[in-house]
Amino acid sequence: MTGGVPYYGGRFTPAQAYAAAHPPHPPPPPAEGHAPVLSRRDQVEALQHLLDTGVLTQAEFDELRTRVEQ
Fold first, then answer.
1. What is the pLDDT of residues 6-15, one digit of tens each?
2. How far is 65 from 69, CA to CA, in rounded Å?
3. DSSP state of 54
4. Span 35-56, mean pLDDT?
5. Domain extents in the chain
6. How far apart are the C-alpha atoms of 52 and 58, rounded to whole Å?
7. Is 63 helix (H, G, I), strand (E, B) or coil?
8. Residue 18 pLDDT
9. Is the pTM of this model over 0.70?
10. Which residue has the higher pLDDT, 63 or 9?
């Protein structure tokens, strides 16, 4: 017999039986470092949507739009 693995006549070892009954958890999805890059047009459209829904005031919209267009 070679190696340090015990042989149980073709049956699972206790460690193999435990591993079969307790499968490992799948790895978490990789964390993305940055949000996807949007074009300036897409960013302005998103800001316009926020303005239309009342999330932003007109002053906040104007300030953010000047940042995007730079």
1. 666 677 778 8
2. 6
3. T
4. 90
5. 36-70
6. 10
7. helix
8. 85
9. no
10. 63
Single-letter residue type at 50: L
Instruction: Encode burial over 1-39: b for 16+ CB neighbours within 10 A, e otherwise.
Output: eeeeeeeeeeeeeeeeeeeeeeeeeeeeeeeeeeeeeee
The stretch 22-44 carries a mean pLDDT of 81
Tokens of 37: 């890059």
Closest CA to 44 of 30, 64, 15: 64
Short-list 9, 69, 11, 13, CA closest to 43: 69
Helix axes 58-69, 40-52, angle to 10 degrees: 180
